[in-house]
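Before relying on records like the one below, remember that each one covers exactly one chain. Contacts with other chains, cofactors or solvent are not represented anywhere in the record.
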Amino acid sequence: MNAALESESRTYFESFEAALTDFDPPAKNLEPIRAAVASVKFSRAYIPNSRSHIGLEAEDGGPDLAFVGAGFVALHPRGGKSAWVDLPIAPTRAGGYTQSRRVEFDRPVAACGTCFTKLPATGVCDYCG
């Protein structure tokens, strides 16, 4: 059993591996996820109650350094350029998974400039505000 600390809106884990086990991504995504976050120096890993991603909190209390979603890893190093890593297997809207890594949209989709998640119709990021 993994020890986790419950907070009002997220569950914190003792390690990234514990969070990754709880998040349960497809097996083919495990090594690319580990490789993407290997050099990230973070203080705590958490999963929000929405279970949409794993977040890696900065040691200095600033904005999160990385987000691991079902089909991507978004990296936001301090003083460096943010990066996006597509994972080999990405979720489909029906809740399953597909090998396809690209989705074609009829129109461009607005993304948050901080965490690169799709913006809702309001234009305000659900995670960054």
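DSSP finds two helices and nine strands in the chain.
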